[in-house]
Amino acid sequence: MTYHHILAAGLMLALCSGHAYSAPTTPTYHAADAPEGTPVMYVGHMPPVMDQGRYFHGIFNQLEGRYSATSTEFKWDGEAWYGGDYNKLWLKTEGTLQRGRLHDGDHELLYSRAISTYFNLQGGVRADIDDGPTRTWAAFGVQGLALYQFELQATGYVSDRGRFAARLEGSYDFLLTNRLILQPQAEVNLYTKADAGRQVGAGLSDIDTGLRLRYEIWRKFAPYIAVTYSGYLTQARTIAHSQGEKTGDLRFTFGIRSWF
Amino acid sequence: MSSPSFLRGGLTRRRFVTSLAAGGVATAFARPALAEVQQAGVIPAQAATQWQLTVAHTHIEIDRKSLKAPCIGGSVPAPTLRWRQGDAVEIAVTNHLKHQDTSLHWHGIRLPAQMDGVPGISFAGISPGQTFTYRFPVTQSGTYWYHGHSGMQEAQGLYGALVIDPTQPDPNACPRDYVIMLSEWTDVDPQDILNNLKMQSDYYTFRQRTAASLLPDAKAAEGVLPALKDRLAWSKMRMAATDISDVSGIIYSYLLNGQAPDTNWLGLFTPGERVRLRFINASSMTFFDVRIPGLELLVVQADGNDIEPVPVDEFRIGVAETYDVIVQPKANQAYTIFAQSEDRTGFARGTLAPRAGMSAPIPPLDPRPVRTMVDMGMGTMQPGQSMQTMLGMPSMAMPPHTPMATLPAAPGAAHGAAAPQHTHAAMPMAAAPHPTASNTIAPVPTASTPKAKPPAQPDDTMDMSGMDMSGMDMPGMDMGGMSMPSRAHASTAAHSPHAMPLSNTTSPMAHRGGHIMGHHTGPIDQAVPPATPSTAPPLLQVDDPGPPPLNVENQNIAAMPTDRLGSPGDGLEHNGRRVLTYKQLRATRPGTDSRPPTREIILHLTGNMERYIWGFNGRKFSESGPIRLKKNERVRFTLINDTMMEHPIHLHGMWSELENGQGAYQPYKHTLIAQPGSKLSYLVTADAPGMWAYHCHLMLHMDQGMFRTVIVA
Asked: Which domain of life is it from (chain B) (predicted)?
């Protein structure tokens, strides 16, 4: 037993001293993990496998008309990315068109880096461009697949005026059948300071949520019906109310989810 | 050149063009000629040494799916080539594709490295308008195949059968002899398939568990609650138990000798005749489960090498494998050759009949398999069950993630036919802390050690000091009560890849290897000069990278991979039929190299289904250099499949001798299915110098990085 204690102590020592124990002639890698730089002259400099392909995809998660007795609006929420397994350029855009006016326009251009099995780290810029005053933000967040297969996006922002904001977005696909899919989805925005010009209040400012039932006629093309709710919360609610805007609306919605 | 008369006698339907056999020009624009002269599945009447093949785009429509396929002689599959063992063959391949390089790889054929046909590794490929002449001696016999290794041409029809006559009389010669080539056909570009999978990895899976399937699931699980629990467990892991094949019958038509099920390929026989069927799985992404209702299948050859005949009702054939079976239909009736895809989304079908125009009923597809915790490498755990409850179980297998260590390899140990090759039982574990395991392992005997002989003798003691428990940090797991004192001999450890490596405890070097467990930058342990006399067995140098990292490229760690050589595979267990297993494969001749291995290379098959990345040890091809083997080195490859899918692993240029307990008669294969959550090993004699490809033969997995270059020098 003591022998093993000595061994264990030696082991700890060895660990602390890093590679000091490596004999110079010893290869420092495992058979299948030779460093990339290990010189291999491929015939015609042609690697036998091209596993570093780049791909380009885009998706409209929401492309929908929202109807209620008092108001009707058109909403889009989409993203596109280009890149390989680790590094991607990511574009996100959403906005609402109501009575010819563009609201809640939010456009982000991000660099996305795969950091774990299911998550990407993303950083870049966000521009709030619509018919209201324009704001620009630096954005930093994560996007991925959380436990139990929840799609999750959490992003923090800091504006050119030194304000902070955060957005949390999630969705989940319930497979009723292999093509009929029920998707609850929600997005909330938080801000540190009110911005009346954009109907933004300090704290929890707005929520946009929906329960969508889509049918995947084809994976890339799925019409859906939904019930959606969008509304202002807490301080923003007061702001919107004072500006004569509706503070929240539950709407019957239909749209198309499509991607390429 | 002439084949034995008993072979020829059965081949009356063959009208193979002799000009082709004589090296003529028939194939240059041979579409009509070949279509006439070579009926799919029929073997040329005679072997030939000179061949001219032309790869060109041809518009082909099968099952209402039309494609401009890169193929040979305008046919899918390409013509069957018949060679003879001992001949030197010369195959001139001309590329008539407009803008693509092409290549042909002779799958399973032992040949000089530069003739192997892998662009970048063997040669530069064949550019448009060019001709490359392959020249090599044929040293083996049996059923093989050839396929393109450029772009994704093998998925679009660039594949054909190879039949090699043995120089000795063929013990399995039959009056009827057909090639049965199974493959897929789709009009979707393989690059688009990949593109879709990159965006949504279950793009082609329409057999998932849904609300609608809850009732049947509950019935199977004997309760709604267990069914829901199971779903939650899978969902928590962000994986799908219904993930069987990446690409399915939703876009594939499954072909038998190039014929869709509707057009029904026909092989004639005379009742009472023995019929040899040379099954080849030439598909790019599909495993098939093959049977012929009403007929017993006598499996006589695997991957081109004769085996002791095994009578079965059914067998699974992984991508790129071949099996020769003999059937003897006695009745004057038709029989259906039924090959259902593993995911049960479709089937290939043909008919054996005494006369044309006959057909037999097509059996219904079996239920699709559902993955279990065994496939996750969690042993026999149930979903949601923690390791804690497992630890008390008698059958607990040790995690394989052992330090690299040097151990004496007992001569002949690898060939001990009687010795169980994959025992988990005999593994003493000395108490030793590990930096990554916060728990101290206390020597508490478990129920699994009836043969235990504690305390272990000093030189019987396995060194666990470097054991990495990091792969086992599953929720709810407690290593505190874990220990396995029991008895082990050097020989057991040496020939059983499942045993913990036995360290020469007198050598400090043996332990140096241990501490770098799980770190990919660690040194490889060197063979320690034996302190014993020079007659001692050679040392086995174990190269164990430890459990793969959970990272962008790897989704799962098989904490308790099991020996699944005795299992026919997911979806085939307990189906009421006799299904072939790897354990049953026994060569008819003893192996040619009886040396024990001097090195063991442990490789983890890893991947991230969600991102659709595949690799070894959590790295794809482009992130790793070559695997280097010394010329004539005897190496054991141990594969631990951490993914939940089967991977058909193919080493070019050298045989893979599967350690399946058949000792000196272990089968020689070129492609081995690593079942999900399993561990298997095979021996390789590195007798073929040069650069070779080593990869998963699921084409998209290969393409996404489950590939390594092997250099023998």
From this structure: Bacteria
Tell me the ipTM for this assembly.
0.88
The model carries a pTM of: 0.81
Query: Which pLDDT tens digit goes with each residue over A122-160?
Result: 999 999 999 999 999 999 999 999 988 899 999 999 998
State both tokens at A181.
């899919």
Q: For helices B214-221 and B224-236, what crossing angle results, to 10°?
A: 110
The residue range of the domain holding A218 is 55-259
In which band, very low, low, confident or very high, does the pLDDT at A30 lie, cut at 50, 70 and 90? confident
Task: Break chain B into its structural domains and give their ranges.
Answer: 50-168, 172-207+242-365, 541-712
Chain A nearest C-alpha distance from B603 (Å): 7
Q: How many domains does chain A contain in total?
A: 1
Give CATH for domain B541-712.
2.60.40.420
B135 has which bridge partners?
Answer: B90
Which of left, alpha, beta for A47 (phi over 0: left; psi -120 to 50: alpha)? beta
CATH of domain B172-207+242-365: 2.60.40.420
User: In A, which residues are within 8 Å of B551 by CB distance?
Assistant: 116-117
In B, residues 326-385, which contact A (CB 8 Å cutoff)? none
Q: Is position A34 within any domain?
A: no
| Contact across the interface for A8 and B432, Cβ inside 8 Å | yes
Contacts with A81 from chain B: Cβ below 8 Å: none
| Span B608-637, average pLDDT | 95
Residue-wise pLDDT tens digits, A43-76 = 988 888 889 999 999 999 999 999 998 889 999 9
Domain assignment present for A144: yes
Yes or no, beta carbons of B524 and A178 under 8 Å apart: no
In chain B, which residues have their Cβ closer than 8 Å to the Cβ of A218? Answer: none
The rounded distance, in Å, linking the Cα atoms of B654 and A189 is 60
In this prediction, residues B469-476 reach a mean pLDDT of 38
Q: How far is A197 from chain B (nearest CA, A)?
A: 38
Instruction: Answer yes or no: is A130 within a domain.
Output: yes
For residue A123, what are its two tokens?
Answer: 């950083």
Residue B503 has pLDDT above 60, yes or no: no
Q: For residues B639 and B604, what is the distance between their CA atoms, to the nearest angstrom?
A: 6
**CB within 8 Å: A178 and B195:** no
B103, two tokens: 């290549």
- Domain B50-168, classified CATH 3.40.50.1820, yes or no: no
Q: Which of A73-82, A96-105, A163-172, A184-193 has the lowest mean pLDDT?
A: A96-105
Across the interface, which of A49, A53, A149 has its CB nearest the CB of B235?
Answer: A149
> How far apart are the CA of B461 and the nearest CA of chain A, in angstroms?
10
Distance, CA of A114 to CA of A124 (rounded, Å)? 15
Contact A222, A215 (CB under 8 A): yes
